[in-house]
Design goal:
Blueprint (H helix, E strand, L loop, with lengths): L15 H15 L3 H37 L4 H54 L2 H6 L2 H16 L1 H26 L1 H7 L2 H39 L1 H6 L3 H53 L5 H42 L21 E8 L9 E8 L4 E5 L6 H7 L8 E6 L2 E2 L5 H7 E4 L10 H5 L8 H10 L3 H5 L18 H13 L5 E5 L7 H13 L5 E5 L11 E6 L2 E6 L1 H7 L2 H9 L8
Parallel strand pairs: 3-8, 3-9, 6-7, 7-8
Antiparallel strand pairs: 1-2, 1-4, 4-5, 9-10
Helix pairs in contact: 1-11, 2-3, 2-6, 2-11, 3-5, 3-6, 5-8, 5-11, 6-7, 6-11, 8-10, 8-11, 10-11, 15-17
Protein backbone atom coordinates (compact mmCIF):
# COMPACT_ATOMS: atom_id res chain seq x y z
CA UNK A 1 0.00 0.00 0.00
CA UNK A 2 1.42 3.39 -0.95
CA UNK A 3 1.28 5.61 2.07
CA UNK A 4 -0.24 9.12 1.69
CA UNK A 5 2.96 10.58 3.17
CA UNK A 6 4.79 9.52 0.03
CA UNK A 7 2.71 11.81 -2.15
CA UNK A 8 4.71 14.95 -2.89
CA UNK A 9 3.04 18.21 -3.82
CA UNK A 10 5.72 20.79 -4.71
CA UNK A 11 4.74 24.44 -4.32
CA UNK A 12 6.28 27.66 -5.57
CA UNK A 13 5.62 29.66 -2.41
CA UNK A 14 6.31 28.94 1.25
CA UNK A 15 5.13 30.48 4.48
CA UNK A 16 7.56 32.48 6.56
CA UNK A 17 7.70 29.81 9.27
CA UNK A 18 8.49 26.98 6.88
CA UNK A 19 10.80 29.32 4.94
CA UNK A 20 12.73 30.16 8.11
CA UNK A 21 12.93 26.46 8.95
CA UNK A 22 14.32 25.72 5.50
CA UNK A 23 16.94 28.48 5.79
CA UNK A 24 17.91 27.10 9.20
CA UNK A 25 18.35 23.58 7.79
CA UNK A 26 20.49 24.80 4.88
CA UNK A 27 22.62 26.84 7.30
CA UNK A 28 23.04 23.74 9.43
CA UNK A 29 24.31 21.83 6.39
CA UNK A 30 26.84 24.60 5.73
CA UNK A 31 28.09 24.46 9.33
CA UNK A 32 29.10 20.81 8.86
CA UNK A 33 32.42 22.22 7.58
CA UNK A 34 33.06 24.78 10.37
CA UNK A 35 36.68 25.54 9.51
CA UNK A 36 35.76 26.43 5.92
CA UNK A 37 32.89 28.59 7.15
CA UNK A 38 35.21 30.36 9.62
CA UNK A 39 37.85 31.08 6.97
CA UNK A 40 35.22 32.38 4.53
CA UNK A 41 33.59 34.71 7.09
CA UNK A 42 36.88 36.01 8.54
CA UNK A 43 38.19 36.65 5.03
CA UNK A 44 34.96 38.51 4.20
CA UNK A 45 35.28 40.76 7.26
CA UNK A 46 38.94 41.55 6.53
CA UNK A 47 38.29 42.16 2.79
CA UNK A 48 35.38 44.51 3.61
CA UNK A 49 37.48 46.39 6.17
CA UNK A 50 40.31 46.85 3.68
CA UNK A 51 37.88 48.06 1.03
CA UNK A 52 36.57 50.71 3.43
CA UNK A 53 40.14 51.96 3.93
CA UNK A 54 40.54 52.78 0.24
CA UNK A 55 38.32 55.95 0.14
CA UNK A 56 40.06 57.29 3.25
CA UNK A 57 43.51 56.70 1.73
CA UNK A 58 42.49 58.20 -1.62
CA UNK A 59 41.14 61.29 0.12
CA UNK A 60 44.45 61.63 1.99
CA UNK A 61 46.34 61.24 -1.29
CA UNK A 62 44.31 64.05 -2.87
CA UNK A 63 45.06 66.36 0.04
CA UNK A 64 48.76 65.43 -0.09
CA UNK A 65 48.84 66.14 -3.83
CA UNK A 66 47.24 69.53 -3.26
CA UNK A 67 49.80 70.28 -0.56
CA UNK A 68 52.61 69.22 -2.88
CA UNK A 69 51.40 71.62 -5.56
CA UNK A 70 50.73 74.60 -3.28
CA UNK A 71 53.53 74.37 -0.67
CA UNK A 72 56.95 74.18 -2.35
CA UNK A 73 58.81 74.61 0.96
CA UNK A 74 57.75 71.16 2.10
CA UNK A 75 57.83 69.55 -1.36
CA UNK A 76 60.20 66.72 -0.41
CA UNK A 77 58.23 65.82 2.69
CA UNK A 78 54.88 66.05 0.85
CA UNK A 79 56.16 63.91 -2.02
CA UNK A 80 57.42 61.26 0.43
CA UNK A 81 54.06 61.24 2.20
CA UNK A 82 52.27 60.92 -1.15
CA UNK A 83 54.47 57.98 -2.16
CA UNK A 84 53.86 56.35 1.21
CA UNK A 85 50.09 56.69 0.73
CA UNK A 86 50.33 55.36 -2.81
CA UNK A 87 52.23 52.27 -1.66
CA UNK A 88 49.77 51.81 1.19
CA UNK A 89 46.82 51.97 -1.26
CA UNK A 90 48.54 49.38 -3.44
CA UNK A 91 49.21 47.14 -0.44
CA UNK A 92 45.59 47.48 0.74
CA UNK A 93 44.24 46.56 -2.72
CA UNK A 94 46.54 43.55 -2.96
CA UNK A 95 45.61 42.39 0.54
CA UNK A 96 41.93 42.90 -0.24
CA UNK A 97 42.34 40.86 -3.42
CA UNK A 98 44.03 38.04 -1.51
CA UNK A 99 41.32 37.90 1.17
CA UNK A 100 38.60 38.16 -1.50
CA UNK A 101 40.12 35.09 -3.17
CA UNK A 102 40.00 33.26 0.17
CA UNK A 103 36.40 34.44 0.68
CA UNK A 104 35.27 33.26 -2.76
CA UNK A 105 37.19 29.99 -2.66
CA UNK A 106 36.04 28.84 0.76
CA UNK A 107 32.46 30.10 0.43
CA UNK A 108 32.17 28.18 -2.86
CA UNK A 109 33.76 25.16 -1.21
CA UNK A 110 31.16 25.24 1.56
CA UNK A 111 28.42 25.54 -1.07
CA UNK A 112 29.75 22.60 -3.04
CA UNK A 113 29.92 20.49 0.12
CA UNK A 114 26.28 21.33 0.81
CA UNK A 115 25.44 20.42 -2.79
CA UNK A 116 27.37 17.16 -2.51
CA UNK A 117 25.55 16.18 0.69
CA UNK A 118 22.11 17.04 -0.71
CA UNK A 119 22.82 15.42 -4.07
CA UNK A 120 23.71 12.08 -2.48
CA UNK A 121 20.76 12.25 -0.08
CA UNK A 122 18.39 13.14 -2.94
CA UNK A 123 19.61 10.36 -5.21
CA UNK A 124 19.56 7.80 -2.39
CA UNK A 125 15.98 8.82 -1.51
CA UNK A 126 14.83 8.43 -5.11
CA UNK A 127 16.26 4.90 -5.14
CA UNK A 128 14.22 3.98 -2.07
CA UNK A 129 10.88 5.59 -2.93
CA UNK A 130 8.21 3.12 -3.93
CA UNK A 131 6.84 2.30 -7.37
CA UNK A 132 3.71 4.19 -6.33
CA UNK A 133 5.67 7.42 -5.97
CA UNK A 134 7.35 7.04 -9.36
CA UNK A 135 3.96 6.22 -10.91
CA UNK A 136 2.90 9.76 -10.03
CA UNK A 137 6.05 11.81 -10.55
CA UNK A 138 7.36 12.65 -14.02
CA UNK A 139 11.05 11.82 -14.38
CA UNK A 140 11.66 15.27 -15.95
CA UNK A 141 10.31 16.95 -12.81
CA UNK A 142 12.60 14.86 -10.61
CA UNK A 143 15.61 15.73 -12.77
CA UNK A 144 14.73 19.45 -12.62
CA UNK A 145 14.32 19.22 -8.85
CA UNK A 146 17.66 17.47 -8.46
CA UNK A 147 19.51 19.99 -10.63
CA UNK A 148 18.01 23.51 -10.66
CA UNK A 149 16.45 23.48 -7.19
CA UNK A 150 19.46 21.81 -5.65
CA UNK A 151 21.72 24.39 -7.29
CA UNK A 152 19.62 27.18 -5.77
CA UNK A 153 20.15 25.70 -2.30
CA UNK A 154 23.84 25.05 -2.90
CA UNK A 155 24.57 28.72 -3.63
CA UNK A 156 22.95 30.05 -0.45
CA UNK A 157 26.10 30.24 1.65
CA UNK A 158 28.01 32.40 -0.85
CA UNK A 159 25.05 34.47 -2.12
CA UNK A 160 23.21 34.70 1.20
CA UNK A 161 25.18 34.25 4.41
CA UNK A 162 28.52 35.60 3.18
CA UNK A 163 26.86 38.44 1.30
CA UNK A 164 24.86 39.54 4.36
CA UNK A 165 28.12 39.88 6.33
CA UNK A 166 29.78 41.79 3.47
CA UNK A 167 26.85 44.17 2.90
CA UNK A 168 26.37 44.79 6.62
CA UNK A 169 29.98 45.96 6.94
CA UNK A 170 30.14 48.00 3.73
CA UNK A 171 26.79 49.74 4.11
CA UNK A 172 26.75 49.95 7.92
CA UNK A 173 30.34 51.06 8.57
CA UNK A 174 30.56 53.02 5.30
CA UNK A 175 27.36 54.90 6.13
CA UNK A 176 28.61 55.65 9.65
CA UNK A 177 31.91 57.04 8.33
CA UNK A 178 30.10 59.30 5.87
CA UNK A 179 27.62 60.65 8.42
CA UNK A 180 30.28 61.14 11.11
CA UNK A 181 32.51 63.11 8.71
CA UNK A 182 29.82 65.52 7.46
CA UNK A 183 26.15 65.01 8.26
CA UNK A 184 24.78 66.98 5.29
CA UNK A 185 27.02 65.40 2.70
CA UNK A 186 26.55 62.02 4.37
CA UNK A 187 22.77 62.24 4.03
CA UNK A 188 23.08 63.35 0.40
CA UNK A 189 25.57 60.59 -0.35
CA UNK A 190 23.26 57.98 1.18
CA UNK A 191 20.06 59.41 -0.33
CA UNK A 192 20.12 56.86 -3.17
CA UNK A 193 20.38 53.90 -0.78
CA UNK A 194 16.66 53.57 0.22
CA UNK A 195 15.43 53.92 -3.37
CA UNK A 196 18.02 51.56 -4.87
CA UNK A 197 17.56 49.03 -2.04
CA UNK A 198 13.77 49.12 -2.55
CA UNK A 199 13.89 48.87 -6.35
CA UNK A 200 16.56 46.19 -6.22
CA UNK A 201 14.49 44.06 -3.85
CA UNK A 202 11.31 44.51 -5.89
CA UNK A 203 13.20 43.73 -9.10
CA UNK A 204 14.82 40.61 -7.72
CA UNK A 205 11.53 39.31 -6.32
CA UNK A 206 9.85 39.91 -9.68
CA UNK A 207 12.73 38.19 -11.42
CA UNK A 208 12.45 35.38 -8.88
CA UNK A 209 8.76 34.91 -9.67
CA UNK A 210 9.38 34.95 -13.41
CA UNK A 211 12.38 32.61 -12.94
CA UNK A 212 10.12 30.06 -11.25
CA UNK A 213 7.66 30.33 -14.12
CA UNK A 214 10.51 30.14 -16.62
CA UNK A 215 11.76 27.02 -14.84
CA UNK A 216 8.30 25.46 -15.23
CA UNK A 217 8.21 26.35 -18.92
CA UNK A 218 11.70 24.98 -19.47
CA UNK A 219 10.59 21.83 -17.66
CA UNK A 220 7.72 21.51 -20.16
CA UNK A 221 10.23 22.06 -22.96
CA UNK A 222 12.43 19.29 -21.54
CA UNK A 223 9.46 16.93 -21.35
CA UNK A 224 8.57 17.58 -24.99
CA UNK A 225 12.16 16.91 -26.06
CA UNK A 226 12.52 13.84 -23.81
CA UNK A 227 9.29 12.34 -25.14
CA UNK A 228 10.28 13.09 -28.74
CA UNK A 229 13.71 11.51 -28.37
CA UNK A 230 12.25 8.48 -26.62
CA UNK A 231 9.74 7.97 -29.43
CA UNK A 232 11.86 9.16 -32.36
CA UNK A 233 11.18 5.96 -34.32
CA UNK A 234 7.43 6.46 -34.01
CA UNK A 235 7.79 10.09 -35.10
CA UNK A 236 9.78 9.04 -38.18
CA UNK A 237 7.46 6.14 -38.97
CA UNK A 238 4.38 8.38 -39.02
CA UNK A 239 6.09 11.38 -40.67
CA UNK A 240 5.07 13.49 -37.66
CA UNK A 241 7.98 15.95 -37.85
CA UNK A 242 5.76 19.01 -38.60
CA UNK A 243 3.52 18.22 -35.63
CA UNK A 244 6.48 17.67 -33.29
CA UNK A 245 8.22 20.85 -34.51
CA UNK A 246 5.04 22.85 -33.94
CA UNK A 247 4.64 21.42 -30.44
CA UNK A 248 8.27 22.16 -29.58
CA UNK A 249 7.97 25.63 -31.16
CA UNK A 250 4.99 26.56 -28.96
CA UNK A 251 6.82 25.47 -25.78
CA UNK A 252 10.03 27.21 -26.88
CA UNK A 253 8.24 30.45 -27.80
CA UNK A 254 6.52 30.49 -24.42
CA UNK A 255 9.90 30.28 -22.67
CA UNK A 256 11.37 32.94 -24.99
CA UNK A 257 8.54 35.41 -24.28
CA UNK A 258 9.11 35.10 -20.56
CA UNK A 259 12.88 35.49 -21.02
CA UNK A 260 12.24 38.77 -22.90
CA UNK A 261 9.98 39.92 -20.06
CA UNK A 262 12.77 39.24 -17.58
CA UNK A 263 15.23 41.28 -19.66
CA UNK A 264 12.73 44.18 -19.77
CA UNK A 265 12.29 44.12 -15.97
CA UNK A 266 16.04 44.07 -15.40
CA UNK A 267 16.87 46.88 -17.87
CA UNK A 268 14.12 49.27 -16.71
CA UNK A 269 14.93 48.91 -13.04
CA UNK A 270 18.70 49.08 -13.59
CA UNK A 271 18.23 52.36 -15.46
CA UNK A 272 16.16 53.81 -12.59
CA UNK A 273 18.70 52.74 -9.98
CA UNK A 274 21.62 54.15 -11.99
CA UNK A 275 19.80 57.47 -12.45
CA UNK A 276 19.13 57.77 -8.70
CA UNK A 277 22.80 57.07 -7.94
CA UNK A 278 24.04 59.67 -10.46
CA UNK A 279 21.53 62.20 -9.12
CA UNK A 280 22.83 61.67 -5.57
CA UNK A 281 26.41 61.96 -6.78
CA UNK A 282 25.56 65.23 -8.58
CA UNK A 283 24.07 66.64 -5.38
CA UNK A 284 27.17 65.68 -3.40
CA UNK A 285 29.41 67.37 -5.98
CA UNK A 286 27.27 70.52 -5.97
CA UNK A 287 26.98 70.88 -2.20
CA UNK A 288 30.46 69.51 -1.51
CA UNK A 289 32.19 71.92 -3.89
CA UNK A 290 30.51 74.80 -2.03
CA UNK A 291 31.83 73.46 1.25
CA UNK A 292 35.33 73.14 -0.24
CA UNK A 293 35.21 76.76 -1.40
CA UNK A 294 33.95 77.81 2.04
CA UNK A 295 36.82 75.89 3.64
CA UNK A 296 34.52 73.59 5.59
CA UNK A 297 36.03 70.44 4.06
CA UNK A 298 39.07 69.62 1.97
CA UNK A 299 39.12 68.41 -1.62
CA UNK A 300 40.37 65.07 -0.32
CA UNK A 301 37.30 64.73 1.94
CA UNK A 302 35.03 65.38 -1.05
CA UNK A 303 36.97 62.78 -3.05
CA UNK A 304 36.51 60.33 -0.16
CA UNK A 305 32.74 60.88 -0.25
CA UNK A 306 32.58 60.24 -4.00
CA UNK A 307 34.73 57.13 -3.67
CA UNK A 308 32.58 55.83 -0.81
CA UNK A 309 29.50 56.33 -2.99
CA UNK A 310 31.08 54.39 -5.84
CA UNK A 311 31.99 51.55 -3.49
CA UNK A 312 28.51 51.52 -1.91
CA UNK A 313 26.66 51.48 -5.23
CA UNK A 314 27.18 47.77 -5.89
CA UNK A 315 26.52 46.53 -2.31
CA UNK A 316 23.26 48.50 -2.22
CA UNK A 317 22.19 46.93 -5.51
CA UNK A 318 23.07 43.56 -4.06
CA UNK A 319 20.44 44.02 -1.33
CA UNK A 320 17.93 42.79 -3.88
CA UNK A 321 20.15 39.84 -4.71
CA UNK A 322 20.35 39.10 -1.00
CA UNK A 323 16.55 39.10 -0.72
CA UNK A 324 16.37 36.92 -3.83
CA UNK A 325 18.92 34.50 -2.38
CA UNK A 326 16.85 33.99 0.76
CA UNK A 327 13.62 33.67 -1.25
CA UNK A 328 15.16 31.25 -3.73
CA UNK A 329 16.71 29.12 -1.01
CA UNK A 330 13.44 28.99 0.93
CA UNK A 331 11.47 27.95 -2.18
CA UNK A 332 13.98 25.50 -3.65
CA UNK A 333 14.91 24.11 -0.26
CA UNK A 334 11.26 23.55 0.61
CA UNK A 335 10.83 21.37 -2.47
CA UNK A 336 14.09 19.48 -1.90
CA UNK A 337 13.34 18.81 1.77
CA UNK A 338 9.72 17.90 0.96
CA UNK A 339 11.09 14.95 -1.00
CA UNK A 340 13.86 14.11 1.47
CA UNK A 341 11.36 14.12 4.37
CA UNK A 342 8.89 11.76 2.71
CA UNK A 343 8.13 8.68 4.78
CA UNK A 344 8.92 5.59 2.75
CA UNK A 345 5.85 3.51 1.90
CA UNK A 346 7.95 0.38 1.36
CA UNK A 347 10.67 -0.06 3.95
CA UNK A 348 12.10 -2.59 6.36
CA UNK A 349 10.18 -3.16 9.56
CA UNK A 350 12.10 -2.13 12.71
CA UNK A 351 12.70 -5.76 13.68
CA UNK A 352 13.04 -7.12 10.13
CA UNK A 353 15.26 -10.16 9.66
CA UNK A 354 16.71 -11.71 6.52
CA UNK A 355 14.42 -14.08 4.66
CA UNK A 356 15.30 -17.73 5.31
CA UNK A 357 14.27 -19.94 2.41
CA UNK A 358 13.99 -23.62 3.35
CA UNK A 359 11.14 -25.39 1.54
CA UNK A 360 10.60 -22.56 -0.95
CA UNK A 361 6.80 -22.34 -0.51
CA UNK A 362 5.08 -19.14 -1.71
CA UNK A 363 1.59 -18.54 -0.32
CA UNK A 364 -0.99 -15.80 -1.03
CA UNK A 365 -3.43 -15.64 1.89
CA UNK A 366 -6.67 -13.75 1.21
CA UNK A 367 -4.69 -11.00 -0.55
CA UNK A 368 -6.43 -7.77 -1.51
CA UNK A 369 -4.87 -4.72 -3.12
CA UNK A 370 -6.10 -1.31 -4.23
CA UNK A 371 -3.96 1.25 -6.03
CA UNK A 372 -3.96 4.70 -4.35
CA UNK A 373 -6.77 6.83 -5.70
CA UNK A 374 -8.45 3.87 -7.42
CA UNK A 375 -12.19 3.47 -6.97
CA UNK A 376 -12.12 -0.32 -6.74
CA UNK A 377 -9.65 -3.02 -5.67
CA UNK A 378 -7.45 -4.74 -8.24
CA UNK A 379 -7.16 -7.94 -6.21
CA UNK A 380 -9.61 -9.30 -3.63
CA UNK A 381 -9.60 -12.48 -1.61
CA UNK A 382 -6.75 -14.04 -3.62
CA UNK A 383 -5.54 -17.40 -2.30
CA UNK A 384 -3.04 -19.82 -3.83
CA UNK A 385 0.10 -21.74 -2.90
CA UNK A 386 3.14 -22.42 -5.10
CA UNK A 387 5.83 -24.91 -4.08
CA UNK A 388 9.45 -25.31 -5.11
CA UNK A 389 9.67 -27.05 -8.47
CA UNK A 390 6.17 -25.92 -9.44
CA UNK A 391 5.39 -23.67 -12.40
CA UNK A 392 2.30 -21.49 -12.03
CA UNK A 393 0.73 -19.78 -15.04
CA UNK A 394 -1.39 -16.62 -14.65
CA UNK A 395 -3.73 -15.63 -17.44
CA UNK A 396 -6.77 -13.43 -17.79
CA UNK A 397 -8.13 -10.35 -19.51
CA UNK A 398 -6.22 -7.03 -19.37
CA UNK A 399 -6.59 -5.29 -16.02
CA UNK A 400 -7.48 -8.48 -14.17
CA UNK A 401 -4.53 -8.09 -11.75
CA UNK A 402 -1.92 -10.48 -13.19
CA UNK A 403 0.95 -7.96 -13.26
CA UNK A 404 -0.12 -6.69 -9.84
CA UNK A 405 0.56 -10.17 -8.43
CA UNK A 406 4.02 -10.00 -10.01
CA UNK A 407 4.64 -6.62 -8.34
CA UNK A 408 3.32 -7.60 -4.93
CA UNK A 409 5.49 -10.71 -4.57
CA UNK A 410 8.86 -8.85 -4.41
CA UNK A 411 7.05 -6.12 -2.41
CA UNK A 412 7.19 -3.32 -4.95
CA UNK A 413 3.84 -2.47 -3.36
CA UNK A 414 2.38 -3.63 -0.04
CA UNK A 415 -0.87 -5.57 0.08
CA UNK A 416 -3.84 -3.73 1.57
CA UNK A 417 -5.44 -6.94 2.85
CA UNK A 418 -4.19 -10.38 3.74
CA UNK A 419 -0.56 -11.48 3.53
CA UNK A 420 2.05 -12.99 1.23
CA UNK A 421 4.32 -15.54 2.88
CA UNK A 422 7.45 -17.41 1.89
CA UNK A 423 8.05 -20.46 4.05
CA UNK A 424 5.62 -19.00 6.57
CA UNK A 425 7.41 -15.64 6.80
CA UNK A 426 5.33 -12.55 6.00
CA UNK A 427 7.32 -10.67 3.36
CA UNK A 428 6.61 -7.41 5.25
CA UNK A 429 8.62 -8.77 8.21
CA UNK A 430 11.83 -9.55 6.28
CA UNK A 431 14.47 -7.23 4.87
CA UNK A 432 13.88 -5.91 1.36
CA UNK A 433 17.40 -6.85 0.26
CA UNK A 434 17.00 -10.51 1.21
CA UNK A 435 13.47 -10.64 -0.24
CA UNK A 436 14.50 -9.21 -3.60
CA UNK A 437 17.49 -11.54 -3.77
CA UNK A 438 15.04 -14.41 -3.36
CA UNK A 439 12.24 -13.07 -5.59
CA UNK A 440 13.20 -11.77 -9.03
CA UNK A 441 10.75 -10.40 -11.58
CA UNK A 442 11.48 -10.22 -15.31
CA UNK A 443 9.33 -7.23 -16.18
CA UNK A 444 7.54 -6.32 -19.39
CA UNK A 445 9.72 -3.25 -19.94
CA UNK A 446 13.06 -4.58 -21.20
CA UNK A 447 15.25 -1.75 -19.91
CA UNK A 448 18.99 -1.87 -20.62
CA UNK A 449 21.74 0.48 -19.47
CA UNK A 450 24.17 2.19 -21.82
CA UNK A 451 27.06 -0.11 -21.02
CA UNK A 452 28.46 -3.46 -22.16
CA UNK A 453 26.36 -6.59 -22.60
CA UNK A 454 28.34 -8.20 -19.78
CA UNK A 455 27.57 -5.40 -17.35
CA UNK A 456 23.89 -5.46 -18.27
CA UNK A 457 23.60 -9.20 -17.68
CA UNK A 458 25.62 -9.12 -14.44
CA UNK A 459 23.84 -6.03 -13.10
CA UNK A 460 22.49 -7.90 -10.06
CA UNK A 461 25.81 -9.62 -9.35
CA UNK A 462 28.68 -7.45 -10.70
CA UNK A 463 31.41 -9.80 -9.38
CA UNK A 464 30.03 -12.92 -11.03
CA UNK A 465 32.61 -15.01 -12.97
CA UNK A 466 32.40 -15.00 -16.82
CA UNK A 467 31.27 -18.64 -16.79
CA UNK A 468 28.16 -17.74 -14.77
CA UNK A 469 27.39 -14.87 -17.13
CA UNK A 470 27.74 -17.15 -20.15
CA UNK A 471 25.52 -19.76 -18.49
CA UNK A 472 22.77 -17.20 -17.82
CA UNK A 473 23.05 -15.97 -21.43
CA UNK A 474 22.76 -19.51 -22.72
CA UNK A 475 19.64 -20.05 -20.62
CA UNK A 476 18.12 -16.98 -22.29
CA UNK A 477 19.20 -18.25 -25.76
CA UNK A 478 21.51 -15.25 -26.14
CA UNK A 479 25.02 -16.71 -25.91
CA UNK A 480 25.30 -17.72 -29.57
CA UNK A 481 24.23 -14.25 -30.74
CA UNK A 482 26.75 -12.53 -28.45
CA UNK A 483 29.51 -14.86 -29.67
CA UNK A 484 29.03 -13.56 -33.23
CA UNK A 485 29.67 -9.94 -32.19
CA UNK A 486 33.22 -8.58 -32.78
CA UNK A 487 33.56 -7.41 -29.18
CA UNK A 488 31.50 -10.25 -27.69
CA UNK A 489 30.30 -9.54 -24.17
CA UNK A 490 32.19 -6.21 -24.20
CA UNK A 491 29.86 -4.85 -26.91
CA UNK A 492 28.25 -1.60 -25.69
CA UNK A 493 24.52 -1.35 -26.28
CA UNK A 494 22.92 1.97 -27.24
CA UNK A 495 20.70 4.08 -25.02
CA UNK A 496 17.96 1.86 -23.51
CA UNK A 497 19.31 -0.98 -25.69
CA UNK A 498 18.32 0.75 -28.93
CA UNK A 499 20.94 -1.20 -30.91
CA UNK A 500 19.19 -4.51 -30.09
CA UNK A 501 15.90 -5.88 -31.31
CA UNK A 502 12.91 -6.13 -28.99
CA UNK A 503 13.38 -9.89 -28.62
CA UNK A 504 17.08 -9.51 -27.87
CA UNK A 505 16.35 -6.90 -25.20
CA UNK A 506 13.82 -9.20 -23.54
CA UNK A 507 16.28 -12.09 -23.60
CA UNK A 508 18.88 -9.78 -21.98
CA UNK A 509 16.50 -9.12 -19.09
CA UNK A 510 15.81 -12.85 -18.75
CA UNK A 511 19.56 -13.53 -18.60
CA UNK A 512 19.91 -10.77 -15.98
CA UNK A 513 17.28 -12.48 -13.82
CA UNK A 514 18.76 -15.96 -14.29
CA UNK A 515 22.10 -14.66 -12.97
CA UNK A 516 20.68 -14.31 -9.45
CA UNK A 517 19.41 -17.89 -9.17
CA UNK A 518 16.33 -16.80 -7.16
CA UNK A 519 13.96 -18.94 -5.12
CA UNK A 520 10.96 -17.35 -6.87
CA UNK A 521 11.26 -16.36 -10.53
CA UNK A 522 8.42 -14.37 -12.09
CA UNK A 523 8.07 -13.75 -15.83
CA UNK A 524 5.70 -10.82 -16.33
CA UNK A 525 4.81 -11.26 -20.02
CA UNK A 526 8.56 -11.09 -20.65
CA UNK A 527 8.64 -13.18 -23.84
CA UNK A 528 6.03 -11.25 -25.82
CA UNK A 529 8.65 -9.95 -28.29
CA UNK A 530 10.43 -13.31 -28.64
CA UNK A 531 9.68 -15.56 -31.60
CA UNK A 532 7.92 -18.86 -30.95
CA UNK A 533 10.98 -21.05 -31.60
CA UNK A 534 13.26 -19.07 -29.29
CA UNK A 535 10.54 -18.92 -26.63
CA UNK A 536 10.21 -22.69 -26.75
CA UNK A 537 13.97 -23.12 -26.24
CA UNK A 538 13.98 -20.61 -23.36
CA UNK A 539 11.05 -22.44 -21.81
CA UNK A 540 12.86 -25.76 -22.10
CA UNK A 541 15.95 -24.34 -20.36
CA UNK A 542 13.85 -22.82 -17.58
CA UNK A 543 11.95 -26.08 -17.11
CA UNK A 544 15.24 -27.95 -16.78
CA UNK A 545 16.08 -25.82 -13.74
CA UNK A 546 12.52 -25.42 -12.46
CA UNK A 547 13.08 -27.86 -9.61
CA UNK A 548 15.29 -25.25 -7.90
CA UNK A 549 12.59 -22.60 -7.55
CA UNK A 550 8.98 -21.49 -7.81
CA UNK A 551 8.30 -20.23 -11.34
CA UNK A 552 5.38 -17.90 -12.08
CA UNK A 553 4.58 -17.01 -15.68
CA UNK A 554 2.26 -14.10 -16.45
CA UNK A 555 1.22 -14.14 -20.10
CA UNK A 556 -1.47 -13.23 -22.60
CA UNK A 557 -0.52 -16.01 -25.02
CA UNK A 558 -1.60 -19.50 -24.05
CA UNK A 559 1.44 -21.00 -25.79
CA UNK A 560 3.64 -19.35 -23.14
CA UNK A 561 2.09 -21.19 -20.20
CA UNK A 562 0.27 -24.31 -21.41
CA UNK A 563 3.14 -26.38 -20.02
CA UNK A 564 2.62 -24.99 -16.47
CA UNK A 565 1.86 -27.38 -13.62
CA UNK A 566 -1.10 -25.21 -12.68
CA UNK A 567 -2.80 -22.36 -14.52
CA UNK A 568 -4.80 -19.70 -12.65
CA UNK A 569 -7.38 -17.76 -14.67
CA UNK A 570 -7.65 -14.32 -13.05
CA UNK A 571 -10.70 -12.13 -13.59
CA UNK A 572 -11.49 -8.91 -11.70
CA UNK A 573 -8.82 -9.74 -9.12
CA UNK A 574 -10.12 -13.21 -8.30
CA UNK A 575 -9.17 -16.74 -9.32
CA UNK A 576 -12.19 -17.98 -11.28
CA UNK A 577 -10.62 -21.14 -12.72
CA UNK A 578 -7.51 -23.18 -11.96
CA UNK A 579 -5.96 -26.45 -13.04
CA UNK A 580 -3.72 -27.93 -15.69
CA UNK A 581 -4.14 -27.06 -19.36
CA UNK A 582 -6.11 -30.25 -20.01
CA UNK A 583 -8.28 -29.83 -16.90
CA UNK A 584 -9.19 -26.25 -17.82
CA UNK A 585 -10.09 -27.25 -21.36
CA UNK A 586 -12.33 -29.97 -19.96
CA UNK A 587 -14.17 -27.36 -17.84
CA UNK A 588 -15.20 -25.59 -21.07
CA UNK A 589 -15.22 -22.27 -19.23
CA UNK A 590 -13.32 -19.01 -19.68
CA UNK A 591 -10.00 -20.69 -20.36
CA UNK A 592 -11.58 -22.89 -23.01
CA UNK A 593 -13.14 -19.84 -24.69
CA UNK A 594 -9.78 -18.04 -24.72
CA UNK A 595 -8.13 -21.17 -26.12
CA UNK A 596 -10.67 -21.28 -28.93
CA UNK A 597 -9.84 -17.65 -29.80
CA UNK A 598 -6.05 -18.04 -29.75
CA UNK A 599 -5.39 -21.57 -31.06
CA UNK A 600 -6.49 -22.33 -34.62
CA UNK A 601 -7.84 -25.81 -35.29
CA UNK A 602 -4.93 -26.77 -37.54
CA UNK A 603 -2.39 -25.98 -34.81
CA UNK A 604 -1.59 -28.54 -32.08
CA UNK A 605 -3.03 -27.67 -28.70
CA UNK A 606 -0.05 -28.94 -26.73
Amino acid sequence: MVMPTEIMRPTDTVGWKSGFGTIKRVTGLALRTPWMVAIALVSTVIAAGLQLLVPILLGRAVDQTQALVSDTADAVQAEAALWATAWLVLAVWIARGVFTVFQNYFSESVGHNVGYTLRLAYYEKIQRLSFGFHDRMHSGDLITLGMLDLEGVRMFFSTGLVRIVLLSMLIGIGGYLLLSTDLTLGLLALSFVPFVGWRSSVTQLKLRGTWLELQNRLSVLSRVMEENLGGIRVVRAFAAKPHEMAKYGVASESALDLAHERVDIRVRNTSMMTFSFLLAMGLVLWVGSGKVVAGEITVGTLASFLTFMTILQMPVRQLGMLVNSFARTATCGERIFALLDLDLAITDAPDARDLEVTDGVLRFENVGFTYPGAARPVLQGLNFTARRGETIGLIGPPGSGKSTIAHLTPRFYDVTEGAIRIDGQDIRDVTLRSLRNAVVTVQQDAFLFTTSLENNIAYGDPWAPPSQIADASASAQLHQFIATLPAGYETVVGERGASLSGGQRQRMTIARAMMLRPSVLIFDDSTAAVDAGTEQRIRATIQAKASERVTIIVAHRLNSLMHADRILFIEEGRIVEQGTHAELLALRGRYHALHALQIRPEEPAT
